[in-house]
Amino acid sequence: MRLRKTSAKNPPTSLKSQALEPYRMHPEGQTLTTDQGIPISETDNSLKAGVRGPTLLEDFHFREKMMRFDHERIPERVVHARGSGAHGYFQVYKSLEKYTQARFLTDPSLRTPVFVRFSTVGGSRGSADTVRDVRGFATKFYTPEGNFDLVGNNIPVFFIQDGIKFPDFVHSVKPEPHNEIPQASSAHDSLWDFVSLVPETAHMVMWLMSDRAIPRSYRMMEGFGVHTFRLVNAEGKAHLVKFHWKPLLGTHSLVWDEAQKLSGIDPDFHRRDLWDAIEAGNFPEYELGLQLIPEEDVLKYGFDLLDATKVLPEELVPVQRVGKLTLDRNPDNFFAETEQVAFCVANVVPGIDFTNDPLLQARLFSYLDTQLTRLGGPNFAELPINKPVAPVHNHQQDGFGRQTIPTSRANYHPNSLGGGCPFLANPRQGFTHRQERVDGHKIRQRSESFNDHFSQATLFYKSLTKPEQEHLVAALEFEIGKVERAEIRERVVHQVLVNIDFDVATRVARAVGVPPPKPLKAPKVSKRSRNMVDTSPALSIEHGPRDSIKTRKVAALVADGFAGKELAHVRKRLEALGATVEVVGPTLSPVKSGDGQEEVPLKTFLTASSVMYDAIYVPGGAKSVEALKRVPLAVDFVREAFIHCKPLALSGEASALLDTAGVSQLAPPPPAKGVDGAMGVVRSAKTETKGFSQLFADAIAAHRHWAREAPPPA
Ligand code: HDD
């Protein structure tokens, strides 16, 4: 069996990986053939009548090659078209049999293979990764009882409450139909027109404007199942459940200016980050978290748990961490795996069931339906990446692209010709929909318990730290500021924002040139609704763990004459803590240090940019620093890292680069002796000062240093 490079660390112990092996094509040492297996000895010239004559129709190799090329594209996903996938496994810490009979949640010895696809929502397949958008976080668990798909996002709520509005919402956020502008951006008239007219979007829009919508990495974002689902145990007892993914590297974001620049400099930023981390053996890990709620508490928390525009604050029902997901293998082929993987919210296993959330109910239809167009027929579950590891036997028949070969004469149930096979599962093992009494009029109406659209939007805003709030307001000013029609800008401020926070509405009104709002007399919330907490600190990214520098990327800027020993020391220290240090120099040719060492830069000031790194380090060395000062692109590194609030370590003479970059007036004064790390700018009076590396590591772990952000204009 032949395996990818990473497989040394990741032997094909996974059942799914073994199941994929017969489908993997290994061309090494093989002869070129047609699709029919006929050997081909010439593929650069078509068959012609004479060397300068016309091509002949008889050339079956040319026709097949061309036909296959002409049909390479399939329709991209109507939403979530841009994405990246990875294989891995999930293991539960201890049995959850009290709550569910699902094998993968009750057997701690079981390593369930998974395939995860992360995505953006609005952009097309070739769009940039770092746009402001929700991120999809879809996980296919190949369990012994069939596939379970947890098709979530990195934001715990949704734009709408009833799936019948999904086409309207998606049409409004996608590029506008007349000119197909803008690509992968929500900053345009139709989205904000929709938001201004559909107040149930308010809470989700606040999340979309927050730092959550510009993650640093797929490896550093949370995931949420969004809806309330049900877990059902072997006795048939059910609990309501909300699913969470908690990244072990913490949750971190970019800043907007950086995200926009990255869209041009490295549109594959997140895809590359995920790929490189897995290739390097830095396997992304997330803990599965559950909020478990007794069924009778569905309305206890001041809102309806069937309403997907609401969060259940962790302070009210804590998230229990029950197992771990590890992503340890990159796909072998993007199209065959990441593009052809088909998720479906309706794929559940015995022990997991749905609720009547009207958004979820609509999704149960949509995912199966969309694959028919996207994957060309009903047999997509037979594609290798979608095929369960559990055995599949039924009477489904025919259709485009059928792969398996049914061998029985009996293709119906019940039958005697096939000995009655396949048999029905034992009712205790087979999937049974939980019995639920449903009583009511056939009616097109929203439940009154879904009426409050603003109090959780306010709760979210109030739960953020000051810098996060400032980023959110700046995002609103940017996005609404791009809306051409003044009446839409005004409606967003006067109909939506003012109901969330008067100060935010007033600031945005001024920024986008609409009349200031008047304070509301009484908040527009339904009588039934109330927030049971004033703030929920868990909603803020900044309150998450900030204690590790694992997998962070640091650029070390050097030119001839840099302090070589110091670079070696700092690099060793940071790498021991799990970071990577890349040397960036004027060219890819070796650079000589002042103390006789040599470094070969991995990137140059031309091929790299500060936005590609988490932190910037400039070793001392008068000659090197003087050279860097004369390279505008090197100075840009320092300036941008400073403006993006990234950790900067400038040793000895390198401290002066802040002057050259024109930002020293925004930084604390340099230390006269020793080291100082105020505002995440670590400087030492001389090179190699004690404590320099540790202060730098602490600054990297803190991620960003918002104290540096310029105050908003008066
Ligand atoms: Fe959806 C794809 C997540 C609401 C209809 N959705 C899709 C993907 C994710 C989500 C992560 C990409 C899966 C992949 O990587 O292939 N969608 C969500 C979440 C929602 C949500 C978390 C709200 C809680 N979606 C939603 C609604 C509908 C859809 C209300 C329709 C009624 N979603 C689809 C779809 C897609 C899809 C059209 C497009 C491609 C696909 O399914 O396979 O069926």
TrEMBL record:
What region holds the Catalase core domain? 33-421
Q: Which reaction does it catalyse?
A: 2 H2O2 = O2 + 2 H2O
Species source reads Pyxidicoccus fallax
Q: What does this protein do?
A: Decomposes hydrogen peroxide into water and oxygen; serves to protect cells from the toxic effects of hydrogen peroxide.
A GO biological process of this protein is: response to oxidative stress
Give the record's keywords alphabetically.
Heme, Hydrogen peroxide, Iron, Metal-binding, Oxidoreductase, Peroxidase
Biased composition annotated in UniProt, kind: Polar residues? 8-17
- UniProt region (Disordered), positions on chain: 1-21
Q: Which Gene3D superfamilies has this protein been placed in?
A: 1.20.1370.20, 3.40.50.880, Catalase core domain (2.40.180.10)
GO MF terms listed in the record are:
catalase activity; heme binding; metal ion binding
Please report the name of this protein according to its UniProt entry: Catalase
The record places the active site at: H80, N153
Q: Where is the signal peptide?
A: none
Q: Which PANTHER family match?
A: CATALASE, CATALASE-B
Q: What residues bind heme, as annotated?
A: R77, R117, F166, R363, Y367, R374
